[in-house]
Amino acid sequence: MRTLKTSKEIVTVAKALSSENRIQILQLIAKNKDINYNELASALNITNGTVTHHMKILEEADLVEYKYAPGVRGSQKNCMIKDYQFMIDILSAPDPGHMYETEIPIGNFTQYSIAPTCGLANRTAVIGKIDDPRYFADPGVTEAAILWFTKGFVEYRIPNYLEKGQKLSELQLSFEISSEAPGYCDTWPSDIYFSVNGISLGFWTSPGDFGGEKGLLTPDWWDPNWNSYGLLKLLTINREGTFIDGGKISDTNVGNLAIEPGSTVLFRFSVPEDAKHVGGCTLFGKGFGNYNQNIKIRALFID
Question: Is the peptide bond before 117 cis (omega within 30 degrees of 0)?
């Protein structure tokens, strides 16, 4: 889910969604992966020029992206959807001068200790062998677009761009996530824990490991008997505590983390062996699942 906070972003997306033709275009792109301009024009009975006009507006709103593929007459421009769910927040737009944002590919973990079932894949193939933890050390993991494990952890180093005199007031992390069942199972609870620098932030119980239909971005070669998409979650640590999608999961607050300029910031996803529900963890990155993103980071600070 994409959160719209700035007035410019809200107006741009609202404009893009104010046309029935553009809504239909987005629906067609979501249902027909790699659809091209000619196919959109034919499906909607409009001209290619009209499609080009609508697509320009959708692109300006960052709702679509393109992939080029060989065609009969040179390269062909295929369309992919980026977002399809939105939340508008008109009260808490961050001051761009007091925040920074970054995105961490899910394969860029710095430490791990996991147990099968487990594995990784990029956009075109499985990396190494499934259920063999050794391949989490393969050089190709940096290209991973999905990873999964039954228990254990993966840890990421969050860039710390705080400068002298600045104090962290809120840390937000957004990611697509699910449980990890053999194959897939929509009802497969898993207690997934979060921590920063070894300090527990609490846990969230994933309801299942979702499959049965392809994620909007999941490639066609992916086995239909495997999980295919997750849920987009927003983890927030601020002065009041730690929250998932606005619901409090612990009293651990941003001050407890003691993050200062120059501090190392290590964020961990884990499924402990002694959790009540040991149902694994799957992380989806760009090119997999329903949301075309990696792990998004936003840090708010005061001077």
Answer: yes
In this structure, the number of other CB atoms found within 10 A of the CB of residue 45 comes to 6
Residue type, 269: F
At residue 245, what are phi and psi to the nearest 5 degrees?
A: 50, 35
Length of the chain: 303
Q: Which residues contact 132 (CB under 8 A, 6 or more apart)?
A: 116, 118, 119
Q: What is the pLDDT of residue 93?
A: 60
Question: How many Å apart are CA 287 and CA 80, to the nearest integer?
Answer: 10
Paired tokens of 95: 């001051």
CA separation, residue 258 to residues 165, 167, 173, 196, 241 (Å): 14, 9, 17, 10, 14
Which residue type is seen at 218? T
Q: How many CB atoms lie within 10 A of CB 209?
A: 28
Contact call for residues 277 and 86 (beta carbons, < 8 A): no
Which range, of 76-80, 114-118, 150-154, 181-185, averages the lowest pLDDT? Answer: 76-80
Closest-CA residue to 76 (of 67, 86, 64)? 67
C-alpha–C-alpha distance, residues 287 and 238, integer Å: 30
| C-alpha–C-alpha distance, residues 174 and 179, integer Å | 16
Instruction: Please state, in angstroms and rounded to a whole number, the distance separating the CA atoms of residues 125 and 113.
Output: 23
If you average pLDDT over residues 120-128, what whole number do you get?
97
Rounded-to-integer distance, Cα 43 and Cα 25, Å: 9
Separation of alpha carbons 269 and 285, rounded Å: 14
CB 51 within 8 A of CB 37: yes
Which whole number is the average pLDDT over 235-240?
Answer: 96
How far is the C-alpha of 263 from the C-alpha of 109, rounded, in Å? 18
Q: pTM of this prediction?
A: 0.81
Amino acid at 28: L
- 79-102: pLDDT as tens digits: 988 887 787 776 566 666 789 999
